[in-house]
Protein 1
Amino acid sequence: MKTLIVLLWAGLSVLVLAVITLPINLETQFIAGMVVLLAMMILKLVRPEGTWRLIALAFGTAIVMRYAYWRTTSTLPPINQPENFIPGFLLYLAEMYSIMMLALSLFVVASPLPPRKSRAANPGNLPTVDVFIPTYNEEPELLANTMAAAKGMDYPADKLTVWLLDDGGTLQKRNSDRIAEANAAEKRHVELQQLAAGLDVRYLTRARNEHAKAGNMNNGLEHSTGDLIAVFDADHAPARDFLKETVGYFEEDPRLFLVQTPHFFLNPDPVERNLKTFDRMPSENEMFYGVIQRGLDKWNAAFFCGSAAVLSRKALAETGGFSGVSITEDCETAVELHAKHWNSVYVDKPLIAGLQPATFASFIGQRSRWAQGMMQILRFRAPLFKRGLSIPQRLCYTSSTLFWLFPFPRAIFLIAPLFYLFFDLQIFTASGGEFLAYTLAYMIVNLIMQNYLYGAFRWPWISELYEYVQTIHLLPAVVSVILNPRKPTFKVTAKDESIARSRLSEISAPFFIIFFLLVIGVLVTIYRVYTEPYKADVTLVVGGWNLLNLIIAGCALGVVSERGERAATRRVKVSRRCEMRIGDAWYKGTIEDVSVNGSRIRIFGELPEVIPTDTSVDLRFKTFVEEQESVLPMGIRNIERTGDGAIIGSRYRPTEAIHHRYVADLIFANSNQWTQFQLSRRGNPGLIRGTIWFLRLALFQTYRGLVYLGRQMRGYESRPRPASGGATAESRR
Amino acid sequence: MRRLLAATAAIGLLALQGASAQQRAPFDMSGERPPAPPEQVAPSPGAVPPAEGAAPGPIAQPPAAALRHLLPTGNAVLAGENPQRSWSVYLTPEQAAGATEFGLGYQNSLVVAPEISRLRMTVNGNRLFDVPVASSDAISRLSAPVPAGLLRAGFNDIKVEAVQRHRTDCTIQSTYELWTQLDPASTVLRFADASVMRWTRTDDLRAIGVDVDGRTAVNLVMPAAEEMSASASALRLAQGLALFADMPNLAVSVTTGDAPARKPGTATVLIGTTSELSPLLSAMPAGAATGATAAFVDDSRYGPGTLVVTGPSWQAIDAAIDTMARPVDRDPATQRTALATRNWRLPEPPMLFGERRLTFADLGIQTQEFPGRRFRTEFAFGVPSDFFASSYGEANILLDAAYSEEVLPGSHIDIYVNDNIAATMPITTAGGEILRHLPIKVTMRHFRPGANTIAIEAALLTDADRVCAPGATALDKGRFVIFDTSEFAMPAFARIAQRPNLAALAGTAFPYGRATTPVPLIMDRGGANLSAAATLSGKLAVAAGRLIPLDLNVSPASVAGRDALFIAPISQLPQVALTQVGISEASRVSWGDAPPPTEAGGTTTEATFDQWRERLSGSGWRGQISTLEEWLNRTFDVSLESFRLLPSRNPEFTPGGDASLVVAQSAAPGGTGTWTLFTAPTAAALQDGMRAVGSAASWAGLGGYISSYNASNGKVTRIEPASVELVQSSQGSFANYRLIIANWLSANAVSYSLVLGALCILLGLATALMLRTLGRDE
């Protein structure tokens, strides 16, 4: 039956392909393009999901394939004009890569699995769990929160062991020849041991820093015995229900090696921070965790993202622990285990909350590692040809790894119009009519399809923006890993930097150079339209393309103009009853929002006339963990008096290990609040509204970028370097 | 003079601005339309070609019988800067030996600068004339003796070319004012002795040539013209003669006794049994009484070299005809490699039955350096009758050419197919360039069955021409060169016959040209009817390149479901034939004697409506819609017609009063077979109309499902059918079916969208089904 259906589908596909490769004329193509566009728009308005979604995608695919056919058969420059042919062919390859990636994504997200039902209520038989918190150089306070949150997970205490795997206090580090480093490592070693002991967490370090994170965790595997391993990055604090929602799947499927959950971030990435979109627009990674992982899950190809996941010890034993050939050990481990016929599951509910890089430079550093790691997997594990993987799994991994080649086509799309504008090369032979009927239809259909696939998770043009801002620095990184696949080493991404003052990113120069180059391109366009009217048509089309590049490049200027920020950490809205002691009196109140550093509390009643800042107070509330009264010492930062009381901003002053558990309970205990926050900014603005919004954003960001540049040129000091503190590593596609 | 210069310059500037304005229009980037219409010579008021033979020549004309007119279509205009023509003239051995001198007569436009313009004539590669073009007042008549050994028995190739430059103007527009008209009366080959015009062998029929008007006449004397049984033989003979003559404008007229006097371009042929012919002739050819005979006699009444086809019975005559025609017949199973056009155009167009590449050298275009402003050259090729790629197809010209550094961007190379613009390749780089196999896509929209011509025209702009200093019209340095290594690449194209399609009939006599069993021909008896039928059958034979077997002994009732021809005055046509091809029954009485039916309600309303629509177009939102339609039409050829789904029925046709002959085609009743009908109000009108439609210019104009010929302006009006039936005509292959579908869907654009849409819906459903069975479930 299954074969029959696949055969039916293949037969239909061949038929569609036959119709698409008919050499029809321009008029017919034009009408077909219009009809398909109309059909897709109507389908989208009427019913954008289920079978209708697949029909609309089939429509779009038809137009994309017609474009590919036409592009292949009639637009390449003649081969005897190498000055046109070579760049023309590169552009062609870039476009074909994009179309191939579209095809792979269509396959991956053809039918994302709907979120699974919550299992918190009946998790079934509970296995023993070891929680690994690998750390390298993160601050003890950050670790304290994470450890406390891990300890606070709702799970029988005798079955849960939390391990702090410290790679910053290894013997190798402590015996370093550089005395300052050795001393710091020694101090860290002692301090973390104490902290861990206070929180009832096992501290573990090793002799040498071999194989980075993978080696660290393998060391953890050797010293522990639990059935399951939960991995949290140092800055990823789990919610109370994390294990309840995940461990049950292992009982259901004995061949399960992984339950992965999404990474939810409390702070914006530099793009979101600088564009101020964090509160309004879905985060960049939501497309991956909201759609792509669900799509991968459909094909049993959801992969390990380094953190916020539970793995099976039995499975890991088969591959000798975590694989460490590439610098993205997580995905690599998943490929290996999938190839050994182990299964994975993705649970689409944010169950951890973490931090992401705050500065553009560290953001790029993180992405470089992902890109290089995925290239290494492509090179050393060749997922498309890997024995043991099912065909869908091969396609899924190919899609995930090939994705990171995007800097090449991006760069080509960026410079291709300049070839024509500056050097008069004809790298795309088509008339204006053909351009309208084929290319424009293809571009619009492409946008509609993106919107269909990722609409609520990714707004129009945002993918282009993200790809562009990464391309500039990722291109050399990808080229270098292709040339020297074994060279890259694991670099830990810094995530808790803060930007005290507005300044340009230290790696912003190329963005301005490209921007001004594109501006010259626009000027050349105008000049040539007037001086060479006989080819104004082509000039206008190419100039329009260049203008599109300029709009994105202008928006990117805003991305590299780092906004200064007062609060380094994200506040999460909560609503919990509490009591606060000021002086000797207890006041009833509500906790309104919390962050990892402090919280805002609304209290009621007659307050003393004078309350100085930094007054020590106590906050009493009921924790979720043991349903017991807890008292957390705090200091007052500011007071805003209201008619019936006041709103008090305060900072935690933990003195004992237990206090970290109270803080973790405040912030991390309730995962529903994160879901709520994500849902609040999810929404599909649609193609037209989204495009208009993006244009306005781009215009403003161009202006902001140029203002920052002007300030910098006038010698405005951009002294404060990002305070590099603790850092952590985590990974994704 | 200076004022004239200024005025011309101003006009030139205007034209230039117009051109650039057009090119500057946004989004009209197809570049498929030239800045100026491709019309041949747009004569300015001062440059009207002189009336034919207006000025009497200074040289006394020798007796008419002792010369051959050389221009195959009567007059010949050499227009533009580098016109040229080539063709062949067939000479009998006696003519080749007895020719004394060539005559060349011409008159040119006033604006041709004599000091820098040349007219040349070459025969068999020897240049006989090379003279300045300096005869704007009257016809100049030149003569040159025939060098010994130049001419040979059989085909002799003649080439006439001119180099023409304007006296004062350097614009491209001005090149359209350049013309030289060759005078048919004085462009001749003269013989010392009239006796060389006598024919003695069957092959000598090929030397029939043309008269001063470019016409070829066969006078068929047939005492039994009224007898239907004999008519079949006469038609077969007419086909044979037409194939021998192979001239573009050949007409047959049948008489029972008399024949006009012999003159160049005519043949007198007697056909009948010995008993019928002996009263007419002073002496019968030897052996006529006993067996089939086809022989030439010198008769006092009909002149020397009269062909007599006779025998004791009509069976014997048929045998004589078959024997005579064998050299020009062709087995229908063998394909022609080229169309036989050498008597009026060289080289002969090669037939392209599928994918093929031909170099320009093969197509008769040599490497040429060109120092002027508007370069033009052309080549011809043939496509089969079942060509079905006009909606989607694109041929390629791979151009090897170069232009010099003085040529400015904004110049362009245009490709015309049968005088319709098919492609424009703008020159966009300054400083000269060598083009190596530059592909230029040529739409096949205007390709038609039979012979096609493709013209390549380069419009070259330079700064020097913009300034146009005195004397600057003369140029010595080549600005443009075209190499004979350029190629014409015909892709594989869809092949399936279409019905109705009169263009296929005109091109290769399809479907009758392929007939192996006799084709029923239904006609009316009488000399005029027989003349018309003979002219038609001759024309069809030439188009088919073979003799088509005809069967006159059939009733209209018996031809249902078969290929058949009808040729008769409308009143004599069977009712079923009229109904079948869609000509209204009323035209039987109304056509011919009634004034044009403009008073009839329908047409007036339509015409008035059109007028009003014209007047109101562009105003209001409806006007905007029609403007949008125009824009779509310009850019993509999209019209409201493109959105039709089901073909509408052909409306019933009533010939207008201005139509003198109507040709109509449709499927035969029963669905198989093709009926083609030629009709006119009267038998005499049919004979005249057939002669006119049979002329090369009109014949090529046939097309659609109804073509009507208007005698008053000599134009053929085509009506395209609303629906065309496809008829399997060659071996079906997957590749061919694919292309057939491509062409059909391109012609029915909405159908493509529907097919694609339906398939996409099915694919979407199948994908949904597959996704439900594959991968994980929810």
Protein 2
Amino acid sequence: MSIKKLICIGCPLGCEMEAEQEGTEIISVKGNTCPRGDAYARKELTSPTRIVTSTIRVEGGARHMVPVKTRQDIPKGKIFDCMEEVRKLSVTAPVHVGDVIVKDIAGTGVALVATGNVNVSN
Amino acid sequence: MYDVVIIGAGVSGSAVARELSRYKGRFCVLEKEEDVCCGTSKANSGIVHAGYDARPGSLMAKLNVEGNRRMEALSKELDFPFRRTGSFVVCTDEGSRQKLQELLERGQKNGVEDLQILSREEALFLEKNLADEVVAVLYAPTAGIVCPFGLTIALAENACENGVEFQFDTEVSAIKKQGEGYVIETSRGVFKTRYVVNAAGVYADIFHNMVSADKLHITPRKGEYFLLDKGAGGHVSHTIFALPGKYGKGILVTPTTHGNLLVGPTATDILEREGTNTTADGLAAIREKAGLSVKDLPLGKVITSFAGLRAHEDGHEFIIGEAADAPGFIDCAGIESPGLTSAPAIGAMVAGILKEKLNLSDNASFVAERKGILNPAKLSAEERNRLIEDNPAYGNIICRCEMISEGEIIDAVKRPLGAKSLDGVKRRTRAGMGRCQSGFCSPRTMEILHRELGIPMEELTKSGGDSRMITGGRKEAAQ
Amino acid sequence: MKQYDVVIIGAGPAGLAAAVSAFDAGIRSILILERDREAGGILNQCIHNGFGLHTFKEELTGPEYADRFVKQVEERGIECRLNTMVMDIGVECGAEAESVDAKHGVDAMEKPSCRSLKYVTAMSRTDGMYQVAARTVILAMGCRERPRGALNIPGYRPAGIYSAGTAQRLVNMEGYLPGKKVVILGSGDIGLIMARRMTLEGAKVQVVAELMPYSGGLKRNIVQCLDDYGIPLKLSHTVVDIQGKERVEGVTLAQVDEKRRPIAGTEETYECDTLLLSVGLLPENELSAGLGVELSPVTSGPIVNESLETNIEGVFACGNVLHVHDLVDFVSEEAGLAGKNAAAYITRMGKEEAAGQVQIEISPQSGVRYTVPSHIRLSQMQDTQTIRFRVGDVYKNCFIRAYLNDKQIISKKRPVMAPGEMEQLVLKKEQLLTFVEPEEKSHCLVIRVEEK
């Protein structure tokens, strides 16, 4: 059994937590203020994930770039695969918040969506 | 074959070029940087000295007083910022009063007008933030302040408009006598000329020594400065010098023509001719000494610090004229303080020498007036609105701190010898010179430079050469 | 000249939230002036997630958070002029102002200050320079980054030195990479976020140096921006030299002692082409100062009362122009209050006695650097009042205590407090009333950090 120390990234509070780990099993989580902390600790120690945010090029838009994010968190190990794919993407204006850019980014099963609006260039 | 090639587009070279453009001839200015005013001329105190410092009878004394006298009319003719603010030399111990008197007498010998010694009380009436230790001051009402960029750029632009050629990014590597003239080898080809004017600042000794056995030796003397926010600009209304005393040469405190407060310089002799870095010791020294003549200096309002190099020749005298053993090679060397003040007189003197030597005739199409970049803030509301109606770019503020519009930046880029880099825009318009130090406006100024000059974003520089602003573009892998 | 009940300077998160809440409190004559080409302020370049947990109960990116408020403003039909720079705000009491006051039944003799309209001078490409009159002004200009010059870092001044926010704009809005090999000075949140962002875009972020012995940013940003990518954070370190005449070629770091002076012999030079600075934010109050608004030397923001009203009647402030926040959610909340209070000011104009109020001065002491608000007029106080502040050091297992006229009224245990994270206390009016003698007009509320 081992004790792992971690800081929750669930919200700006940043709770400092301790988790008891037995092999791949998490026995307990302490120090969290809310259930999100418990969930984060368990996930972080077994299969850590992150939401990835970036930008992609826009053709014919009032702005050159539109911000995007993975709709859900993706495995940490896939972050750079995701970025590699993002780098090659572009989209044509107009783009709106929530538009799906790619249904499944880097084989994660998670969609890449726009998080900003870009109107057609006038 | 040129009639005259001037090496260096600093204030001296530009002043010579401008005065020379009164005459007919083929004139060219070679500059190793991408713009005018990139060396000593860009980083100094911006003071128009009254003229009591230099040794009576010296060329420095003569040209200082003459430059001071010419400055006001020139500022109107060429439309650059100048203000006759007056200067104080403050004395902080009773034992040194005699030195004020000596300065006064020296000034009078040099022909400086209206010098007077004021008591502490009289001085405080004019300048409330003098240090408590100040016992008396030498007041020189004829001293003033000038924008060193404004002066140099105005001279160069006017020269250019009157037909002088400017070659930038052109570094001189060798000068050889050939027949009646000189061959100048540069990073961008060979220039042949009858006469050379050596206005190369801290490099002037190198070029002089290429053609003359009578060697010069210039030491770059570093001066470090703090520039304070406009909120501190009213702390003093005159240039305040300290009497050289037990702390060595003092630190001056002065308003600038644009309403900031400038504190400095230090004086450190260095070896590196490009050593314009500030140092921890230098900045600490300013902080330590600045309060000796002026109290309650708001050093918390520093927006930037910088260093400049003075071209100090061993003899501490301007070396202007034809080198004795190199006919056709005119020096303009050792131009340290009061070089900025003297520039108008230096220009006239060197042009006079050349006119005589080359027997130049008048340039009938010479235009003495030059209009600076339009400053919309000086217009009435109605005039400003008419301007914006005609050219909406004047309604689009790019630099929030200095309130500089897109119209002014475009003007700076499009005019003769226009800006090609962010610093070029900054020196011409002040965009990026304010309290946020270009944090907000640099991406936008880059966009304007990119659009107006067709320079790819990746090639845009801060100040020419390899000073590129960005290293990669819009998802380069995709392109 | 056009006149508005509320003129809001800035359409960032503060300005937008203030507009929405003023509208929802019944005001219809509202104008927002924004210098940028779109509303949303700095959020538009904060493309990372982590916004909105308080406000929307979900995790949003900056542009999404902004979008929600922009939509609320649009739905209400509030006028928002973009690409418009406010040049000046002045208080002037002209004939026009008097006629307006007369219409609202203000007795000029009794309430002279109420007569004052504020005059906002603005400029844009399309409208030129013009003035609008405002019965109330809400200052929501945000903040700017502290530049290199303010730090006195010695060295050359080459290209490649960027404040983190400028780099963020270049990367996220314009799509350019400002550098490939990066050193970051300052562990403020924007610096941490940019460490990750530059890494994801292919740059090598070598190190983040922080002058203080603690981080200036949120803990979670250290985890997800630095730890995730193996970027070291060097506390008690600073930049002592910048090399490179044209473009940055190297940066020398050194450890600092407890007085923040570099320790000789600890210098370490990093080869790099970029130095990012994330060394603090400053409320942008040049317009406020021009108007005569009294500013706090601690926050550089206006000194305000419980209604977030400045010393100039009818002029309110909220968001980062008031004091620099860590969380946009609190900006929205604060701005909502400012909007509501501006509306209340307009509604009650001339109907209320201003003099002789019971006032509580808040005195920040031992460890508490400042408070917003700095004083409370009891008659204007809502049932509860949130007091926000920052502490000056890192404190573990300490108490935040409030004393009203020397009597302890609040004691709140805090496991960890740090300068980088804003703290708050909530005062209850009911409770204050029990401690305040009604004849006594002036009271003092001390807020301090105590170890036991």
